[in-house]
Amino acid sequence: MEKISERVMALSPSATFAMSQKAADLKATGLDVISLSVGEPDFNTPDHIKEAAKKAIDNNFSFYTPVTGYLSLREAICRKLKNENGLDFTPAQIVVGNGAKQELCDVILSTVNKGDEVLILTPAWVSYIEMVKIAEGTPVLLYSGPEQGFKVSPERLEAAITPKTKLLMICSPSNPTGAVYSKEELEGLKEVLVKYPDVLILSDEIYEHITYVGKTASLASFPELKDRTIVINGVSKAYAMTGWRIGYCAAPLPIAKAVNKLHGQYTSNCSSIAQKAAEAAYDGPQDCVEEMRVAFQRRRDLVVSLAKEIPGFKVEIPDGAFYIFPDVSALFGKKFGDKVMANADDLAMYFLEEALVASVSGASFGAPNCIRFSYATSDAKLVEAMARIKKAVENLK
Ligand code: PMP
Ligand code: GLU
């Protein structure tokens, strides 16, 4: 008897976590593996945030919280959205969950019906397609390559919208490409979207603060789109809090209510202690965010210059997030011994096994010619990793 549901059988495992687990397994055997696979800041959570969590434990914040999160946290999020993004939301429109990941999935489950089309601007983070599959929606992938700066044009967006399009998923700054839509570029997309009032917009802004081209813009800031745009964000990337698992959606009220209902049945609330820590992150001093951003920018410059020296790597300069996403297709067909590098999966595996550097193949991001390397690690490790990769590439015949 088959015990696993068709729903889960049809899912692909998370390629980011699969690769980081492989790296961890190899490391556990004593090998000196450098992991540039999973994307998470290598910094420790700032002290004032940790202190707030310790205080929350001592002050007995140990009971269930409201399903949508403490009111004080949702108020802090509303202040953040107002002050940093110029967006007006009320606490009733915010749902706090276990990371931006859960909130993305909750919004998709709360809005997408079987057969609805979800337009995903690719290359896109590995989980988007799978989340749409969980909701039995139809992922429609709209790819933009390096020639387009990995960004969709208004014309191509319009051509992809059909009467079945329910949701558009956009991520800026982008994981994996680092592309950032300017206010003017978003304005162009807005001009298209106003013509299709039934299309909802899911705007993933988790890398908002990790940008090298100044402040980022949001589709939610256009009044014409505000009542159908859902903003996703969280503390994982900006405050180096990946393990604390706090993210949120800021949504039109009916959608926030639907997510609340869903949460009430299968999540309840997320950790009370982590919520108090997130509140301190939003209400506390913000210099830590800028300090980490500056470090990421330095590493971006370093890793781009090193990766450009690797034969067969075509590297674009990312404007945000903490990944490089080189096109490595010039290496397809080359051999190591009698092993042929037929695609990016083979190359990523070769880099792991021979160079002891973990990356993630572009295939699960919808870009099979590319490989993603996270540069959220120390300068020394980046220098060593790129040197190893260069040597491994030079060993291909
Ligand atoms: N969106 C994107 C584009 C991401 O890269 C991540 C990182 N995993 C997330 C959402 C989810 O972040 P978290 O669940 O840690 O808040
Ligand atoms: N966002 C990170 C990444 O893409 C974390 C891992 C994940 O959630 O997929 O690597």
List descriptors:
single chain, 397 residues, alpha/beta, 7-stranded mixed sheet, 14 helices, 14 strands, 41% helix, globular, binds 4'-deoxy-4'-aminopyridoxal-5'-phosphate, binds glutamic acid
What topology emerges from the helices and strands here?
Blueprint: H1 6-9, H2 15-28, E1 34-35, H3 47-58, H4 71-85, E2 94-97, H5 99-111, E3 117-122, H6 127-134, E4 138-143, H7 154-160, E5 165-171, H8 183-193, E6 200-204, H9 223-226, E7 229-234, E8 247-250, H10 253-266, H11 272-283, H12 287-307, E9 323-324, E10 335-336, E11 339-340, H13 344-355, E12 357-358, E13 360-361, E14 371-374, H14 379-394
Parallel strand pairs: 1-12, 3-4, 3-5, 5-6, 6-7
Antiparallel strand pairs: 2-8, 7-8, 9-14, 10-11, 13-14
Helix pairs in contact: 3-11, 4-11, 5-6, 5-10, 7-8, 12-14, 13-14
This protein binds 4'-deoxy-4'-aminopyridoxal-5'-phosphate and glutamic acid.
Structure in words:
By secondary structure, the chain is of the alpha/beta class. Helices cover 41% and strands 14% of the residues. The chain contains 14 helices and 14 strands. The protein has helices spanning 6-9, 15-28, 47-58, 71-85, 99-111, 127-134, 154-160, 183-193, 223-226, 253-266, 272-283, 287-307, 344-355, 379-394; strands at residues 34-35, 94-97, 117-122, 138-143, 165-171, 200-204, 229-234, 247-250, 323-324, 335-336, 339-340, 357-358, 360-361, 371-374. Strand 6, helix 9 and strand 7 (229-234) form a beta-alpha-beta unit. The longest helix has 21 residues, at 287-307. It is globular and about 60 Å long. The mean pLDDT is 97. Bound molecules: 4'-deoxy-4'-aminopyridoxal-5'-phosphate and glutamic acid (GLU). The site of glutamic acid (GLU) has 11 residues, from helix 2.
